Amino acid sequence: MRVSILIFLLMLPFGAAAQGFAGLGSDADGFAVPERGQALAFPRDHGPHPAYRIEWWYVTATLTGANGRDYGIQWTLFRSALAPYEKDGWQSPHLWMAHAALTTPERHFVAERLARGGIGQAGVAADPFEAWIDDWRLAGPDFDTLDLRARGMDFSYDLRLAAQGPLVLHGDRGYSVKSQDGQASYYYSQPGFTVTGTLTLPSGPVEVTGNAWLDREWSSQPLSEDQTGWDWFSLSFDDGTRLMAFRLRGGRGDFTSGTWIDADGTAKALPDGLITVEPLNLTAVAGRDLPTRWQLGVPDKALSVEIEALNPQAWMATSFPYWEGPVRVIGSHGGKGYLEMTGYD
Amino acid sequence: MRRAAIACLWSHWSRHPLQLVTLLAGLALATGLWSAVQAINAEARSSYAEASAQLGTGRFDELRAASGPIPLARYVALRRAGWQLAAVLDGRMPLPGGLVEVMGVDLLSYPALPAIEETSDIDGIAPADALLAPGLLIARPETARRLRAQVGLPPVTLSQNLPTGVVLTDIGTAETLLNRSGEITRLLILPDQPDGLAPLADLAPDLVRVQAEGRSELARLTDSFHLNLTAFGLLSFAVGLFIVHGMVGLSFEQRRGMIRTLRALGLPLRDLTWLMLGELLLFALIGGTVGLALGYVVAAALLPDVAATLRGLYGAPVDGDLALQPAWVALGLMMAVAGTFAASAQALWRLSRVPILQAQGQYAWSAQGLPVLAQAGIGTLLICAGFLALAVFDGLVAGFVMLGGLLMGAALLLPPLLSLALRIGAGFSRGPLSTWVWADMRAQLPGLSLALMALLLALAANIGVGTMVSSFRLTFTGWLDQRLASELYVTARDDAQGAEIALWLHSRADAVLPIRSTEVQVSDQAVFLYGIVDHPTYRDNWPLIAATPQVWDAVAEGRGALINEQMARRMDLWPGDAVTLLPGWTLPIVGVYSDYGNPTGQAITALPALLERVPDLPNTRFGIRIDPAQAGDLRTELADTFALPPQALVPQAAIKASSLAIFEKTFVVTGALNILTLGVAGFAILTSLLTLWAHRLPQLAPVWALGVRRDTLARLEVLRSVALAVMTAMLALPLGLVLAWALLAIINVEAFGWRLPMHLFPLQWLILLLLAVATAVLAALLPARRLRRLPPSDLLQVFANAR
After folding, report:
1. Which value does ipTM take for this structure?
2. Model's pTM, two decimal places?
3. Domains held by chain A: number
């Protein structure tokens, strides 16, 4: 009932008890669970999947202002279902939460929105694509051409996104495994948007250009009971290649997974163990120590880079707090990207 | 020396325990009544504050529709324009034993409430339980018991963090419970709004923004009620201090010789004064503590009735339980101490001027008051100032200032008037004894005047309040007969059933009068707008207090509106003025009707005209006209046919009874305070007579020596006391009537918004007169008895001791 509990439900609700029984495709509460081999279909799968417990539409962008300064923005819409059915009105079991952030090298602005499903305050339509909550919006005629906007008390942004390549399916054709126990989600991305638009800061508006990365993921049981948090990277290198990589930290050791994306959009899954991640520097953020400088390697791809936060204080002080912000990449490959870290208490 | 002085001072009290008891009792009475009223007020106010905190009301501005509910789509549209709002659906749900208030909030966006926090900490309650059907109700245990007794309601969880009679739930559950799908009563404007939003006035011109501090209707109405109580408490306090004044004066008088001796033995005046002050402080604390205990008991006894009144009259959430608050204890003791010193100031001042060597004068201790003419002048001035305040300022406080001036001025005028009456009376006296009696009365007057003032005030308050209460009851009963003309009142489950019932009744009842209303905002105040059909029930019965010619034709044709007296007085709207009921709909006011017991404004116009503007007016309530003999059968038949619960079918008599019960309770408190005040006044006379006793002997001894027997003297004592009381009562009558007029025409109008016609009740006055006489007799009996049994040697000694 308390908002923080709701958020907890939204973010980390499902332990081992929620495992699917192979072949039946649903968990104990009647939610559907992802199954290997299910083909994703578009534009249908851009829309919501009410049979699954949790789902998100997640945009991050690394931007450069006309003034030459670096910026980053985040826009996320979460759907969380209390029960696996649809209903109109206040008693719809679907709850929506959104986070927007704008990061500069010195400042980090955050806003949050919550909404009940079933009344039209928030939702997603697949075709023509629109995802919205209050006046925040990610919408376009189609998934390749999107307008993105959000605003908080002291910032706002209004951006145009144009896809430069194909969608990328992670894992096994979009079936992305999250633990040694086999928990999984459906996961695909559009990693290659070019971005133009305006950021509005307390100091005034800034025209920006850059690149955006859109993640789509839905599941009913994304984590194992022993898993306490994750470190997630989306990196765009100067040579046009890209890398999505995450590490799930657990009592039985780390579980890594990722996708190597060639400049032409060809994707190759990187199963557990092919990625090395090592925190280098800890920064005191919001009363805890967080690694804001990393060593990341993919030996198969001759990748060995150092990753550093643009603003180490990119703390998302939302109902369920976490760290998310833009990063710079140096080493064997140069580039930019985004880092998300959860579960550091 | 100091120790000896203390022992000396104390010896007086051990020799006069009755004086000590009387002094402490006076203090306890003064503090007790005052504290009782304060406790009741504090409890009620803390209940309001607590309810406000528990429900999160009064913290944020709100949006309300000018009329009717806000559609869900409007909320979503405003949200999608970026405004951060929280939706609330308020309503009332009938339960056996009365309505409960349902407050349905969007649990996701409503600011954190203690009851929600508490509930979310309970193991085994998940968000889904509260947000999804059937939902979860949160209520106090008393309310929860009533909810659980009903079949078919969602599960109930307990929370102490809610006012009694309130059910908190999610807005989705409230929709189902109240059968008001897609409706929102109000939208909270949350504090953190994004930058650069389009103004609400542009986005939603039809919604009214109500400021958080502007929603004080409840506070304003109840403030008047509490001010009423405070005024009565203060009156009792003042009357109680008369006793203290009398007793302190008496004790100082009797210790005059001892004081002289102590001073002559070398005790500095300063030390003596400090000792006396210490003594008074001690008494003030003891009397104050006893008074607090008394006040607590009185408050605890009265609070349930006050709470019932506040709930019934204003819908104000007040518990019947009394909590002991430290501030209340401190304030009560402070009042006791301050009151004691104020009442003893005169005595202390005289103490400083006791001549050490000079013999005591023959006049009574307190015989040296203000010159009579000056006192009369000040009294007249006070009365004039009071009326001036009323003429210059408006409002309840001005009303009380006027009453204060009137009462104080009249009290000051009493001794001069009595003196004048005695002078005239002396002119008619025949024979030496009767001449002596008149002269003696005048001589005694200064010593008795304070007590007589107390009696005057108590009698006047009794006449005034009695007249008000009786006028009210008479008017209200007659008004109820007019207003509740329908024999049976029925409430349908929903509009569809309402239509069915109306159709069904068409052939069975003489008339079916729909009761359909919507809430509108007039001058930023909530007003309930009713649409009525044209029927003789209204034309013949409706209690109009001001009207234009052909008023009912104008209403029936939708050309005019009636408004209730509260609204007329509050907004100063009268026949001939116009009122804007809805944006773009202004009607001339054709009449004003009395509407006792309703805190809010109300307006009436033709139903068809209202339906044109508000088509979705709920249609669930009806008044049914039928031969009273058949009403019972019809009720049974209706209940059977439509499966209506008993509370949905209310006969006229039941409504009348419950309305009268609320009003009876409203005056329980004033009645109780009234009787106590009179008791205190009687006590004051007794103490005054006892004070005078010491001086009576030198005055009585010569008369006795001249041959008047002691029992004759004793009878004359009683007679004298009665004569003074009767004269005081005579003067109290006009004062009381002026007081009643002020209460009815000024205080009630300000406090409740209605003016009552004044009725006179001579029988009540007679009873009061007898009560005053009885009080005087009782008070004089003790000194008279003493006199009758006085050994002649004591009287002789007067001549032996030339003091």
Report:
1. 0.91
2. 0.64
3. 1
